[in-house]
Design goal:
Keywords: Antibiotic resistance, ATP-binding, Nucleotide-binding, Transport. Pfam families: ABC_tran. Its main location: membrane. Helices cover about 35% and strands about 25% of the residues. It is an alpha/beta fold. The chain folds into two domains: about 220 residues, Rossmann fold (3-Layer(aba) Sandwich); about 60 residues, no CATH class. A six-stranded mixed β-sheet has the order 6-7-8-3-9-10, sandwiched between helices. Strands 2-1-4-5 form a four-stranded antiparallel β-sheet, with helices on one face. It binds adenosine-5'-diphosphate and magnesium ion. Adenosine-5'-diphosphate (ADP) binds next to helix 1. Adenosine-5'-diphosphate binds next to helix 1.
């Protein structure tokens, strides 16, 4: 099951709609783990996912998934991945178990279908609800069933398009745990998200899609560091910020800074967040200065 080589490779990949480019010159190599494709609405996340899952052809360049070319080895790609789209694909009239058994049968599992369905219900915490029609389920549970259905075949790579959009915080956390569980079982996950916090908390690798290209790429930590140093934020007794001084975060450097501050001054040490990364990178791309951008 485990796959040791790159799960996704893109070489100068481009997509357009009519004359309008969605992205151009996308080049990347992603190792096994949880990869987040982060970007605002319209950034091209779904388009990239559709290319990687063979649902759409690239307009230029090449992409490989699990080492297979998405155009020339479509069948091999499809056989080795699971895909969950943005909208649920489960049948609302059937029960949860019936949905999974049906999907397993369609996938050719035959007599193993019931066993596989039960294992998935257990894995995704849906056993108690399994006998009830899905139309009575919460959105979060339906989404989990959707993912379970995509995984009736054991595959090393799962693609998810905005799996948590519109979910309440509790369901979102539950889904994160499920996805981490998959990663722990050596199933890699490529997901798209509009939420920085989600990318930061969940992914091993974050690719920020913006303005037709990859605006940033790395671990959540690397992205945060790319945005700049931590800062000592000093406040006077009224709570007003009187200074923001860059620091490497070491005790000696913080001491050097605090030695210059008067009595009654309080400090916070602030590390840049991925939100800061996002705002500063997108502002740079838009030709604005960070902080100048209107609230999205
Ligand atoms: N079927 C389509 N026809 C024309 N333009 C499209 C179509 N689908 C997407 N686009 C355009 O391609 C760009 C990327 O879309 P998409 O990949 O859906 O972005 P995301 O998933 O990040 O929101 C957008 O600017 C969108 O308007
Ligand atoms: Mg989309």
């Amino acid at each position: 099951m485990a796959y040791a080589d790159a799960i996704v490779e893109c070489i100068d990949l481009a997509a357009r709609f009519g004359p309008e480019p969605v992205f151009t010159g996308l080049t990347l190599v992603a190792q096994p783990g949880i990869v987040a494709l982060l970007g605002p609405n319209g950034a091209g996340k779904t388009t990239l996912l559709r290319i990687l899952t063979t649902l759409r052809r690239p307009d230029a360049g090449a992409a490989r998934v699990l080492g297979f070319d998405v155009v020339r080895q479509q069948r091999e790609v499809r056989r080795n991945i699971a895909v969950v789209g943005q909208f649920p694909a489960v049948d609302n009239v059937l029960t949860g178990r019936e949905n999974l058994v049906m999907t397993a049968r369609l996938a050719g599992l035959g007599r193993r279908s019931r066993g596989r369905a039960d294992a998935l219900l257990d894995q995704f915490g849906l056993t108690d609800a399994a006998g009830r029609a899905v139309n009575g389920w919460s959105g979060g549970m339906r989404r989990r069933l959707d993912i379970a259905a995509a995984l009736v075949r054991l595959v090393p790579l799962l693609f998810l398009d905005e799996p948590t959009t519109g979910m309440d915080p509790e369901s979102r956390r539950r889904l994160w745990d499920d996805l981490r569980g998959l990663a722990g079982d050596d199933v890699s996950v490529v997901l798209t998200t509009q939420y920085l916090y989600e990318a930061e908390r969940l992914a091993d690798r974050v690719l920020l899609l913006f303005d037709g290209g990859i605006a940033a790429d790395g671990s959540p930590d690397q992205l945060r560091r790319a945005v700049g140093d931590a800062r000592v934020e000093a406040r006077d007794s009224s709570g007003a910020v009187i200074a923001e001084i860059p620091t490497d975060g070491s005790a000696s450097d913080v001491r050097r800074i605090t030695d210059q501050l008067g009595a009654g001054v309080t400090i916070d040490i602030r590390r840049p967040t991925l939100d800061d990364a996002y705002l500063s990178l997108t502002a740079t791309r838009r030709g604005e200065r960070p902080g100048e951008r209107a609230q999205a």
